[in-house]
Write a structure and sequence with these properties.
The chain has 365 residues and is α/β, with parallel strands linked by helices. The chain is 36% helix and 14% strand.
Length: 365
């Protein structure tokens, strides 16, 4: 009698998909697709499907009911995955309000949440091959983070998996996203400075091409280009990119820029808060006072460790509203509906770190 592999000595429990994959000579993902009915519509060779079914019959494979429920089209579970170095668990973290908005809207829509901690200390790193495959446990997933593993996210989208990124992500074709209007908000902050009389304004930003950074720079340049008064006579608009703000933005650097005539510094908000933290520390170390000696503005909100300092002029990102908008967009994708969430407006924050340049409005140093 032929040996029945499903009752081979030493085996415990039912055959698994990994064993079907080994016998068929394919990946476990392919086995899952074939046995799950290929709901994603991925092109598979008929010979591949036949080998998977033959291996499953030979091993006596029977799908785990719990796994089948998880793989169903509707689990009423939405995933949340952060690409930050540590998953935001403290209420002071800038991502916390996003999660508040996500939770409230998910509850209103009748969904539970699954938090994936792939970027947390000790967890599977998001950049490792296949690290994002785990999000398929949920019906769809929300992603947060400045830097994402594009290949993995692109593969999820190509497979038809419902995914929404919180923050503009136009460079990944087919990925749905919600975002704040950083261009208009940044322009409003810079116009505030030019209305005060500043004509030499410098932007400090991180040395990368993250969409949030490019949007802020676009708003910065747009406002300067439309400023009234002799802006060009005082020198061109300047943008400083730095890969290491703490090392590059020093007291000596600030003094040198002020000596060249700069009267206002603007920094971008990022996941790390590095640009603003370095600028804030360098101005203090240089013995300068804002706004008496120099004006400071922040395109966003300060990091948690500087929340108790003087409130900077800038804008506030409506994080909870963005989180809720992302859930609405994701649930629309799950329902097969066409939906577009408009850019969410940011609120201008007057703060107390800006004033007229030394010598009076319009003074050119």
């Amino acid at each position: 009698m032929a040996e029945n592999r499903s009752s081979k000595p030493g085996r415990r429990g039912r055959p698994r998909q990994a064993e079907v994959a080994r016998l068929a000579g394919v990946s476990q993902t392919t086995v899952s697709l074939v046995l799950g009915g290929n709901k994603q519509g991925i092109a598979l060779h008929e010979d591949t499907r036949a080998r998977v079914f033959a291996a499953a019959r030979e091993l006596g494979y029977v799908p785990d009911p719990a796994a089948r429920r998880l793989a169903a089209a509707r689990n009423n579970l939405l995933g949340v995955f952060s690409f930050t170095a540590t998953f935001p668990t403290a209420v002071e973290h800038s991502y916390y309000p996003f999660l508040v908005g996500v939770e409230q809207e998910a509850a209103a829509q009748g969904y539970d949440l699954v938090l994936f901690t792939g970027s947390s200390s000790g967890g599977a790193q998001a950049g490792e091959p296949g690290a994002l495959d785990r999000v398929r446990l949920a019906d769809g997933c929300l992603f947060l983070g400045r830097h994402v593993p594009e290949d993995q996210l692109r593969r999820l989208v190509a497979d038809g998996y419902p995914a929404v990124h919180i923050g503009r992500r136009e460079e990944l074709d087919g990925l749905a996203w919600v975002g704040a209007d950083y261009v208009a908000a940044s322009a409003e902050v810079v116009r505030h400075l030019t209305d005060l009389g500043h004509r030499r304004i410098l932007l400090v930003r991180e040395d990368d091409d993250a969409p949030a950074s490019t949007d802020r720079e676009r708003g910065f340049r747009t406002a300067l280009a439309g400023a009234a008064g002799p802006l060009s006579a005082a020198g061109p608009a300047r943008v400083v990119r730095t890969a290491d703000p703490a090392a590059d933005i020093t007291a000596a650097w600030v003094r040198a820029r002020v000596g060249e005539g700069v009267t206002a510094f603007v920094a971008e908000e990022t996941d790390t808060g590095g640009a603003w933290r370095a600028l804030h520390a360098a101005v203090a170390a240089a013995g300068l006072d804002a706004p008496r000696d120099v004006s400071l503005a922040l395109l966003g909100s300060p990091p948690a460790d500087l929340a108790g300092a003087r409130q900077p002029t800038g804008f506030d990102i409506p994080r909870a509203a963005l989180g809720a908008a992302a859930v609405r967009l994701l649930t629309a994708l799950l329902a097969g509906e066409e939906r577009a969430e408009p850019l969410v407006a940011c609120g201008f924050r007057p703060g107390s770190t800006t004033g007229p340049p030394p010598g009076g409005p319009g003074t050119t140093v």
